[in-house]
Amino acid sequence: MAIQTTSRRSIGHTALHYPTPEDARAAERLMALLGFIKTQELPLPTGAFYRYVIAGEHHDRGDGILYISACPPAQRAYFDAVRAALKFGQPDEHPSVAALRAAQALDPEYAFHLGILTDSLDELEATMLGLQEAAESDPLLKGRITVSYNRPLPGDPLVDGRLDASPVFGGVTRHAYGRNGVQAFVATDLLINGPTGDGLVIELDYIWPDAAHHILSVVEVG
Ligand SMILES: [Fe+2]
């Protein structure tokens, strides 16, 4: 029988890894551009360990935390073994690798990903413009991040008009599984996770605060 919870709960923390110690600075730059706040940096021989919070209110709390550290050796060895067995990047690569990548290219939410909610669309747009610029010109991040977007299913003139005028969402034609919210996706190989260990998608969301239904409350298809 399920326990009847009455206590307050929140998602406390997620532990993520950058691939190698050499990637620490680039991962740090990415976290800063995403707007996360670094509260601790612990130098370790195996690569720096970082504690970030997703917003200032979480600074000394036990939730809203992202721990980032270098991929530990046993996990690295596991990923290496998986890649060798599947012949990653070789002519006789197992077809499931390309199939998974194609599915993820069509839908950033296809596999494991991390979603962060913000209550400022203006700030989300500024964040994404900064990331777009970094993806093109930042020496640490060039070629390491890819951004993509979803608009909500159309139908609300106020929402649609605001997004038509947006420097980020104006030209977006792909839609979320719902209404009254937007999704911005940052795919990066600077943080590893998922079945192949070769990349993570971080999703930044905004929902219209007065909407009765939105992308995160009701999933809609079509
Ligand atoms: Fe998602």
Describe the protein in words:
- The chain is of the alpha/beta class and 222 residues long.
- It has 3 domains: 8-71, 2,3-Dihydroxybiphenyl 1,2-Dioxygenase, domain 1 (Roll), CATH 3.10.180; 77-106, no CATH class; 108-222, no CATH class.
- It has helices at 24-33, 73-86, 95-106, 121-137, 157-164, and strands at residues 13-18, 37-42, 49-53, 65-70, 113-118, 145-150, 181-188, 200-207.
- The strands form 2 sheets. The protein has a 4-stranded mixed β-sheet with strand order 1-4-3-2, with helices on one face. Strands 5-8-7-6 form a 4-stranded mixed β-sheet, covered by helices on one side.
- The protein starts with 12 loop residues before the first strand and ends in a 15-residue tail after the last strand.
- The model has no long low-confidence stretch (mean pLDDT 94).
- Bound molecules: fe (ii) ion.
- Fe (ii) ion binds at residues 109, 113, 115, 203.
Bound molecules: fe (ii) ion
Shape: globular
Residue-averaged pLDDT: 94
* Spatial strand sequence of the major β-sheet: 1-4-3-2
Query: What string, H for helix and E for strand, traces the elements in order?
Result: EHEEEHHEHEHEE
Largest sheet: 4 strands, mixed
Total DSSP helices: 5
First-last Cα distance: 36 Å
Taken together, the total number of domains comes to 3
Beta-strand percentage range: 15-25%
Radius of gyration: 19 Å
Number of strands: 8
Structural class: alpha/beta
Q: Regions with pLDDT < 50 over 5+ consecutive residues?
A: none
Determine the fraction of residues in helical runs and give it as a percent range: 25-40%
Explain the layout of strands and helices.
Layout: E1 13-18, H1 24-33, E2 37-42, E3 49-53, E4 65-70, H2 73-86, H3 95-106, E5 113-118, H4 121-137, E6 145-150, H5 157-164, E7 181-188, E8 200-207
This protein binds fe (ii) ion.
